[in-house]
Amino acid sequence: MRRICLILLVTALAAPAAAIAGDRMLSTAGDGSLVATAVNGTVIVQGRGLIFGHVDQGVVIVIDYRPDEPSTSLTVTGAKGKLVHAGAAYSGGDVRFLFPSGRYTIQLTGLGISASAVGKGSVSVTGAGTADDGSYTVNGGKPQAVAKSSAGQTFGGGFGGGFGGKSS
After folding, report:
1. Angle in degrees, CA 77, 154, 66, rounded to 5
2. Bigger pLDDT: 1 vs 156
3. For the chain, what is the HEC assignment?
4. Considering the domain boundaries, does residue 161 fall inside one?
5. How many domains does the chain have?
């Protein structure tokens, strides 16, 4: 009988602590992921964290990039042309990019777009209307075929900006 009373007492004391910890985990949901594979069309990603990728033929437009550390900078290779305006646009074939950390908004337009992001953000994907416009996956879910109409989703938890859409 004493054992049962002791177990009930310990359980009663531990329950509020477990509930508080659970609430904290929900309010600070962790990082998620985005993977775009062989997309023909346009991919717009707004987020924070790391993103890298490759465009077979097309344009990488940096709408905004604010690195976490002042010494951190984005890297783009393989571009034949660079147009500088409010952001920067890199065009050509075999264009590779890396945004190591920070907040960013980028637009990838072209053929054979592959990108991976880890962190929190939102993505809008619009296909070019070819027979196979590629696929994308958020938060390790099931790959989704890219359609000609735009699809918006979030990845990671607690992202305050974005394009709306559903979360997987």
Report:
1. 45
2. 156
3. CHHHHHHHHHHHHHHHHHHHHHHHHHHCCCCEEEEEEEEEEEEEEEEEEEEEEEEEEEEEEEEEEEECCCCCCCEEECCCEEEECCCEEEEEEEEEEEECCEEEEEEEEEEEEEEEEEEEEEEEEEECCCCCCCEEEECCCCCEECCCCCEEEEECCCCCCCCCCEEC
4. no
5. 1
CA separation for the pair 58, 53 (Å, rounded): 13
Q: Is 163 within a domain? A: no
Does some domain include residue 31? no
Tell me if 77 sits within 8 A of 151, measured CB to CB.
Answer: no
Q: Has residue 106 been placed in a domain?
A: yes
pLDDT per residue as tens digits for the range 117-153: 999 999 999 999 999 999 999 999 999 999 998 778 9
58 contacts 113 by C-beta, under 8 angstroms: yes
Range of the domain at 96: 37-140
Per-residue tokens: 135? 């696929």
